[in-house]
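To close the chapter, one final illustration. This time we ask the reader to focus less on the individual chains and more on the assembly as a whole: which components sit near each other, and how the overall shape emerges from the parts.
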Amino acid sequence: MNALAHAAAVTGVPHSSYIGLSVLLFAIGLFGVARRRNPLLLLLSVELLLNAANVALIGFSRYWNNSDGQIFALVVMVVAAAEVVIGLGLVVAVFRQRRALDVDEMTELRG
Amino acid sequence: MIGTLGWIVLGLPLLGALVLMAFGAKEPPKRVTQLVGCGSIGLAFLATVVAFFSMLSEHAEERTHVSRLWEWIDIGQGLKVDLAIRIDQLSIMMMLVITGVGFLIHLYSTEYMAHEDGYRRFFAEMNFFVFSMLLLVEAANFVFLIVGWALVGLASYLLIGFYYDRPVAVAAAKKAFVINVLGDIGMVIACFLLVRELGTLDYDQVFALAPQFIPAGGGVALSIALLLFVGAMAKSAQAPLHTWLPDAMEGPTPVSALIHAATMVTAGVYLVVRTHVLFELSPLAMNIVAGVGAFTLLMAATIAIAQVDIKRVLAWSTVSQIGYMIMATGLGAYASGMFHFLTHAFFKALLFLTAGIIIHALHGEQSLDKMGALRKPLRFAYFAFATGCLAIAGVPGFSGFFSKDEIISMAAAQGTYGWVLFGVSTLGAFLTAFYMFRLLLRVFHGTEPEGGYHGEFHMSGAAMTVPVAILTVLSIIGGWIQVPFGWKKVTDWLEPVVGGIPQKVNADGTLTAVGHVAAEPSHNLEVITISASLAVALLGILLAWYIFANGPERRLRISARHPHLRSFLEDAWRFDEVYDETVVLAGRASGDGLRDHVEPKVVIGAGRGVQELFSDMARFMHQIQSGLVRTYAVALMAGLAAVAVIFILVSR
Amino acid sequence: MGEQIAFGLTAAGIVGCALLVVLLKNAFQAAVALIGTLVSVAILFVLQHAPFVAFVQIIVYAGAIVTLFLFVLAYLGERALSDPDRLEHFEVFSWITILVITAMGAIVMFTTALPNFHTVPETTEDIGSPTALGFAFLREHLLPFEATSLVLLVGAVGAVVLAKRAVMAEGGR
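The assembled structure is written out below.
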């Protein structure tokens, strides 16, 4: 490790930290998806997953020194917005029929 | 022009067949059936005649016309098959016989079949047969040849089994079909070999390339020739694949005349002549072909002596006569073989149609034991039949004399092996004369059968007698186109197709001949052979006269003296029994064994196993499909984890 | 030093708020915690030379998506869950999976062959300004751009259809 790089390591934050943060956020989101029974909180957890992906994308955008990662982050946001609209619409529609907010109650697709 | 005519000739019978088939179960008026059935063949014959005459006006070397519609199959690697026909001297000769004799037999059938059910079906299938046979001879490549080959087999199957309510006829049809398929397999394998060696199936290319790329006398050349000949043997009823033809007589008599005497069974001769380049590459194959032909002609002639069914005698006689043709082609005397094909088509069709008149008159009776002394009541049939007998026996002046004696002389000119074949075929000529006159004398001479005839004779009308009369004339004059010491029209005509020796281009540009040309018999030799065969023919006629002319006493006395020989001949050398013992019994035993031991364990067991596997899987899936979304999410994540693990392990 | 302090604070905010999102029983509080995560992520984006994405993050996520969540939560209200959790015995699988994926991320990060992965990046180009993103979108990534608009259109139509059906199910028009 040369002197300049060493100095940078003191004053800045290395890439790996951003990516590690992304992994951590993803794991938390996974936990949420696996454990929450309220469909709204499930969707919130999915947002966490998407944000984790965004963090990684932005991090790599900086690493490679070009805008592609940011472009994809924006696309992911659009997908997230659409997903939330449809997801919430479904939740409301199901709620009107079932009067329940528990994904374990919705088992019509059982084999 | 000639190419277009070729398509028209090919299309008309097909059109006729399709129109007749389109009526379905509804039986159209007989007039319509007759008009469509005969009209299509008649027009095809006219078109063939026009093509023939325009071909006559062309230069001899330019008479080959290949008409290509479009590319049919492109398999890649340069193997292309065109939808194409080839009209040349050889195929036009076959076409003339097929449509000409075919038309006469169709005409004959309009009356002969008038009292049968399935009048429309009969003509539809006959038209279909003519189409298939024309396809066979007009094909410009081996693929179409095989298509036509298989279709005539189908037509033959349908027509042998025309009386499908008779178990015997159905069995005979199946037998014919199975044996013909054996031949088809041989031809298909031969074509595979051609593709492997030459990469093409087009006649022109194959015959041009074969001498260059297939070593003469080598194993490949022998395999190709013999495999093709297996096809020829099956179709042309040569030993040991001949057993279906006598059984095929279960079909209606016009069918026997057209398919199982005049045209289809000579397809093998056509095949050998057409592919003679391939045969000449292997002298051994040529000798085998000649040997098979000689054996068959002798064997069938002996069997014909002992048969009592009038049509079976003619069937065995057909086998024997095709043996002559095959022997001629095996000797390299292709023109002689084709000449005999031509005359045989005339006189054998004549004999069958006349037999049909006799059977018609006797209300379906076919056994010789129930015939005799019909000379007076059936005077017309008598003359026609006698003409046919004289022709086939080789009495000078009649057509069979010219063609058969030419083959016999050609055989004598081919060295030692040739002399053996000469001996066999001369003996065959003697037997031919003998069994044909036995037939003639037992039907028309001698005494009436015990108990006489019941009821009126069913006399034939003009639709039956006119074709017979035309064929009678043709049987007499048909041979005069090729006369020993005189002119050789057939040989000259076919010279551009079958003449010449295949030549191999050497590296330095010189040519080496491969194969050989049949030696022409010398003048003196021809005199000797003609005298010999003439003598044996007369001897055969005289012997037949001595035994059969005056009632059954003498014949019964002689046959009582040789009961074993008689039953051996009557059972056709027991080929069927041998096949039963070897092939049929073994096949049945293996079938039984498979049914009792393999099927319950392997087939049904495997089925059960698969079924249980799937129901187990379904049961498991049912449990997994809980409908609980979160389990799905966890499963998705687990899959993601697994993929990640695999990625990391692989990328290490 | 400044970036390190900022990163430490935002990272703590992100992880802390995310944990609140998945752990809080009250859905309304969880949604509010999500706002904290999203805003922290936006700050992270600024640190990463992505100011435009950071603004979009605030506007779209915090402004629109979470608002939508809160609206729906307010509309539906809190519901008691049917106890007990039927998937209790599945919990171990989710833990295993989460640990495996986290471990994989860690392994990849510490053994990666990417050069300079563990050093501080040197940003030389303009990669995050609206200008740069506009050029990138309209020059190199036009197809994703158009596909994105299509996704939004589908989302809008889907929402309208669902809402309409829901209204009709309740007897309205």
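The first helix of chain B runs from residue 2 to 22. Chain B touches chain C through eleven residues (CB under 8 Å). With these observations in hand, you are ready for the problems at the end of the chapter.
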